[in-house]
Amino acid sequence: MIIKWIIALLIIAGLSWLLWSSGWLKGATQQPAAVQSGAATTTPNTPPAPINGMSANDDTSDAALAQDVLAIDAQMKGLSTDSTAVDASMNDKATVQAF
Question: I want to staple 53 with a disulfide (CB 3.0 to 4.6 A). Which of 28, 37, 59, 71 is the partner?
Answer without folding.
Answer: 71
